[in-house]
Amino acid sequence: MSGNGGSGSDAASADRRPNELLTSWFVRSGWSKGELARQVNRRARQLGANHISTDTSRVRRWLDGENPREPIPRILSELFSERFGCVVSVEDLGLRAARQVPSATGVDLPWTGPQTVALLSEFSRSDLMLARRGFLGTSLALSAGPSLIEPMQRWLVPSPPAAPEEPDSVPTSRARGRLSRPELDLLESTTVMFRQWDAQCGGGLRRKAVVGQLHEVTDLLQEPQPEATTRRLFKVAAELAELAGWMSYDVGLQPTAQKYFVLALHAAKEAGDRPLGSYILSSMSRQMIHLARPEDALELIHLAQYGSRDCASPRTQSMLYAMEARAFANMGQPGRCKRAVRMAEDIFAEAQEWDEPDPDWIRFFSEAELYGENSHSFRDLAYVAGRSPTYASLAEPLMDKAVRLFAGDRDHQRSYVLNLIGMATVHLLQREPERGATLAAQAMKEAKKVRSERVNTRIRKTVDTAVREFGELSEVVDLTERLAMELPETAEAV
């Protein structure tokens, strides 16, 4: 029965023990054995593994301790990760992880310029061709823990010196490259424009355009260019790949987002831009917090801080401390969280007197953003500490400042909505459901102006919390009805 995803060996069945880890995840999922079997078969067909034909008896054997062959363990990992909104690894399910080659993991990639360009080109082309929501993501697996952190640490390993170019190896006209300085300036300004669109409209509106621009830049990087031009092109590629990753994260394509972030970090290394690399690592850290992996988030932030401690501007350092606070909050470490919040505030004050202009990618980190991040840290602490009103009260004044500052900022519409939602959750924590429902309704209205599955998901979770705790309140009943009518169930990735 090689076509059903089984392990095959009857001799081992006598020593088989029930898989308690897989059983625990399965019971909490609420799925039936038949439903899980159908999902495995559907995902296998998407991957092209048409030989997989799972049924309820096979699922029962997995729960009893049978270890299925690949790609079943990876499919199960993806299905449970999506079900619970966090990374559920093969090991977490009590299954043996098949050793993957570096290219299959999507993270442990060669740190060389030509291969970085080739991987960027290949992945962006695949994304453009297979951009239907969820399809590309099913061919990837999220990495977490040591399999994510250890490859990222190589970001700090010095690159070997490049071999000197042969002056007569290519015609002089091509060696100079075909890009003029004004054309390079235009590429950089286009990246700034894309970033503005994302902040205004969410990741779902222009994601495919960013991916297309990234693919065009990789074409330019495959042509002979002067060294200075190549570095600038790698910097553009790094910023576009980070933005493609951020937009993918915003619309819920988590494996795709992680792959772009990793490729962006490789490109930043080739550009020799360590502050940009630290920013990319902070985006990866934010994704890990979203996926309930705060320990991984903290490792990534510490790597970013260590790698840019002598070259990052005060604004960038402040942002990194704010993200460190978020990680500590979600780990339930209030003392370290509060210290990181203070550091973020103190260093941000220095940024006001910083003479040199900041790069465009960090200009989003305004006073409003600082208040928003720090308030979310205290809000997260409140949840981790068992819905503590003490930490909620610390979050409220900061969240209020963030909401007020973002309210008049049309350039950061998504941030305004996210902080409205945050304020709603704070009031729910403070047992003020009427105020929480009012803010959630306001966030719902504003959310229609952006295309962000992240925003929609947070609103739904906030409404679910209100229903669970204050379901009979008329304001909450009205909120659930409004949610059903006004908020779309899915956001299409483009």
TrEMBL record:
Region (Disordered): 157-178
Superkingdom classification of source: Bacteria
Protein name as catalogued: NsdA
